[in-house]
Amino acid sequence: MSKTHLAVWKAILAGWLVVNIPVITIIVVVFLVGMAIIPNGRWIFLLIAFILGWTWWSYTVPRWRRWAIKQGADADRLQRWAVITGL
To answer: What is the pTM assigned to this prediction?
Structure first.
């Protein structure tokens, strides 16, 4: 039985869809909703948005990496391309 290998570019694409796109969405939505509620609270909502985005990133990156390696992606290439692409 041959094990299928996940291409690194597919793992990176999945990482962007599962990790970075939600981070960007969380930051933008929290900031804009906060500004709509309290227009003078720019810095506090930016801080809250950053903390929530970072929390999501910290939670999902290790899980994404384990998933990609378990699917057969080369760990060294995955790490190198994750850093290059901002994951």
So the answer is: 0.80
